[in-house]
Description:
The structure holds two protein chains of two kinds. By secondary structure, chain A is an alpha/beta fold. In chain A, 32% of the residues lie in helices and 21% in strands. Chain A has helices at residues 20-42, 60-67, 104-110, 123-133, 181-193, 208-215, and strands at residues 51-55, 73-78, 114-120, 140-142, 145-150, 153-158, 170-175, 198-204. Chain A has an eight-stranded mixed sheet with strand order 1-8-7-2-3-6-5-4, with helices on both faces. Chain B is mainly alpha-helical. Chain B has helices at 7-23, 36-49, 62-74, 78-104, 107-118, 121-127, 133-151, 157-169, 176-194, 198-219, 221-224, 230-244, 249-252, 254-257, 292-295, 298-312, 321-335, 346-365, 370-388, 399-409; strands spanning 271-279, 282-289, 396-398, 412-413. In chain B, a hairpin with a 2-residue loop joins strand 1 (271-279) and strand 2 (282-289). The mean pLDDT of chain B is 90. The interface between A and B is large, with 56 and 70 residues.
Amino acid sequence: MLSCDFVFPKTRKYRYRDGWVAALSLSVLILVLAVLSDKGERNRRIAVSPLYAGVSMMADALKLWESQGMRGRVLVLFDRRLNADSTGGADLPASMLRETAENYVYVAYRKNIVRKVYHVIPDASWSDVEHNLTGNPYVERRGGGFRLTIEGMPVHIQRLQGLPVIDEPVLLIINQDLWDNGVLRHVAGLMKSGVLRSDIVLVAGRAPEEILQVLH
Amino acid sequence: MSGHKGTYSVLVFLLVSACMVRVWGVQEPSFHVGDEGLHIPAAIEYRETGHANPDHYAHPPLKYHLLNASMKVWGDNPAGWRMRNVIFGSLSVAVLFLIGIELFSSVRVAGLAAAFLAFDPLHLVLSRSTFDEIPTVLFFLAGLYALIRYLKGSAGYLPLAGLFFGLAVSMKWYFVISLAAVTLFALLATAQRDGRRWLRVADIVSACIIIPVTIYLIVFIRWFDRGYGIWEFIQMQFDAYREFQFVQAANVNPALAGAGMPWEWFVRPLLTIRTLGSEGEFMRVLAIMSSPLVWLLVLPSMTFMVYRIVRTGEYLANPSLVPIVFMCTYLPMLFIHRPMFLYSAISCLLPAALAVSYTAITLADSFKRPLWATSVIMVVFLAWSAYVYPLTTGFSVKKSVYAPLFTVTGSSNSR
Lengths: 216, 415
């Protein structure tokens, strides 16, 4: 019959003390967690001095972020549409992507300018958005809003009152045409109180200077 | 491995043979075949930006690091794309042989199992491509080997087991449940033999969980470069798992999906071909196929092994690892909420090959001349392997020679 080693050898004297693998591996894990956590934070580039500017189109924001050397940032987007259309871009290298009004947030993600998005929807459009997203298997209901991912980029979709406290300065961009001054004053209040901190505030629309004054 | 006459010679012979059949003509075809068109641009994009386009972001990124290393050594050409798998595929054969020796103390069982893997047409074709399954299987095999050595008394192998298990889960998630199972097995086996030694328990848990988690984190270093933190990493892992539930077979590769779902893998012959060229009576194809001579024996052999283990009552003896790893790898694929394709069967092949080999040698030993019977099994297997080998390489073959095979298997054409 086949000779099978169906029993363990009885001699079990290791040359090493028990526990050294546990001690060493736990220490290394803690070190790695600390290093990676620090690495993530260090790779977020924040503007040296705060910038409040108007842009003629929302998509122009991308060039401005690039020129300021932004990297690894949270974007808070006040707009009806997310403009992160990845159609046709998913197969291309980031260097070959060209931004459009429909995909500039996606391009910013692929170029590592943006890592996460909070998409704030105007109240008037919320019922539409809710209708579109409810029942979509790719979208999770989170509190009063929604959460989805686009190629791994987390996108939180909510109304202004659902915007959480974000514990780092964000890139803020507002489509002025969709928000009245009352709402923008509310945003300004959030910024003054430190609930929402931003180093680059961009406003696109008819009279951005007026709004920027409110926000500044 | 001591005490086995000729063991090293067999090991070297198997390693060289496995390497030769994998490297021969690996530069052809000179263009991207199948998923190479995803894997290679994704590796380059990962190096440049930390994104995995056009591949899926949810896969662990060690595969991109290794593919980039391969292309750094051999260049961005067919050799650079495929040599990673040639080397890892060949090494898998050697490590499977070593595991066979450790589990069964039999050169014949180990040698036959390694030969099954060395000449398995699916393992061959994937070893000559960029599929992630080949390194994944090697790393898990190496981890298992190191764990068995530890259980047999070589303490220094324990962190090595953790290292290789970590590399395996950092390639693909195939072996996560198997890793949990072998951890439990190691804990129970150690407790049965040595009593409750909590520091030893801590060592095993650390090697099988903490070291793999640490390595898994490290391979995501380019992802952390993009500004993410640890909590975002944990959330991303849940997102990745969730996204896999939505993968549709039709969106990935309908022809490959038609080549056989997991329940079919070990119950009927499977073959899907990609035609590379055709000229008169001759054609060049790449076949993703099962090896019926071995694969159809997997389930009976595994049953036989379980029966032998139950009969001896030694549930925590090392050979029990064979059915444990098989069940913990194969069963989840039967029930998981996403399509699994034939190439994923590679992850089940290592215990499968050992079980079939064990059963075949046990049968051969029931004959009056066991060595003669073993030789007959080997010759039949090698003849079959030689017949299907050209289909795994894209070499030019005569259509009429393979027409019966295509007819019997009802082969489909993949993209």
